[in-house]
Amino acid sequence: MESSPYFKTSAPASADQPLFWGFLALLVWAPMPLGSNRVWSISILTASALALLLGWLWLYARNRVQLTPTSKRAWPIMALLVIANGWLGVQLSPVGFTLSAADTAQEFLQGWGLIALFVLALVLLSSQQRIRWTIYVVVASGVFQAIYGSLMTLSGTEFTFLIPKDAYKGVATGTFINRNHLAGYLVICLSLGIGMMIASLKSTPSGTWRNRLRRWMTALLGAKARLRIALVIMVIGLVLTHSRMGNSSFFIAMMFTGVVALILGRKASRSTIILLASLLVIDIFIVGTFFGVEKVVDRLENTSSHRETRDEVDQYSISLLNNHLLDGSGAGTFYTSFPEYRGHDIRIFYDHAHNDYIEFLSERGVIGMIPLLLVILATYIAAFWAQWKRRNPLMRGLSFGCIMSMTAMALHATVDFNLQIPANAATFMLVLALGWISLFHKKEKGDT
Prior knowledge:
Blueprint: H1 17-29, H2 39-61, H3 69-73, H4 75-92, H5 101-124, H6 128-155, H7 179-200, H8 209-221, H9 223-240, H10 244-264, H11 270-291, H12 293-301, H13 310-323, H14 334-337, H15 356-389, H16 393-412, H17 422-440
């Protein structure tokens, strides 16, 4: 493998190295089996995450691994996540209330798996080399999903994960069932990839023409060129999903985070401005011309309250929410509780609210929602603070990717349920961990 700032293999292997590779494999596996949105696939994801964490704890008990500086500083976030998931245990208890104990129990177990992934990211991403590997593995997974979804659509071979598609034909879904969930996943991968592009930009002047030529050749032939190609491929896949909010949230979040980076960077970087401008120009005008961004625009223009029923679902869900505002109806019970409140004009079966905020609040109540909101808010602040405080290019790139991912997911959550899909929720837990890593990671001796 070539020697580059992206991949270095000189560091000695540590005791938790096999766990790290297992963690990366789990990140790639999560979206494969229909976004892990089946009982058997979420069981595999949850059991694997808990097994990896138990393996790390066993090594820690034998003094073969240590806590990272980030894991020591982010313990309040871990505590909030435990409190949030512990509330589901209360809903299952005799003193609690849930409309479906089986569904709430599944959410309860899944929650521990997601917490395990968050903790694993904090303790396993102990070096810059591992951080880079993680980001590039996630980007590679996004590239696979984009290529697979695009080929299935463009060739007319409509398959998801080893089974023929029975919905969303003619649009890219990857190995997910719903195009919006592929879009949500690709936006996370794109955000982290763009963050890595930001981290690779040179902040010093080129100087002589010879140095400029060397940098241009490196950009054309090196790892940055491969990463840029990966970003273009993922944008093609995102456009081919024809997801309105998926595409909108991506471009809005990218522009917003770009402005934030330029402001908090204290000095506008010409290379950053050029990169963001090229992303907009190339991805919108060139990629869109050949792969149908106008169809996304048409869907946005043709959207109306008369043709969409999601807004009515939100309105009827408010009644459900008001009746279970404090304690919730039970995690995972929306499809059980909603039929009682929906009007006769809703003739489609809705198993989710198409609004993550409403669904989380109606199922978990204010008590279960507050810890989750605190986690999101604190991580958002940490990523902003890292963008202002850190001067390490990789840490600034991580904070950029975290801010962009969280902004896009916050927008998409108003009209969809990405965080109800285990694969997207698992990848989002990585994003949350990266936000804290970007603020507290310290370069140690031998770190690359």
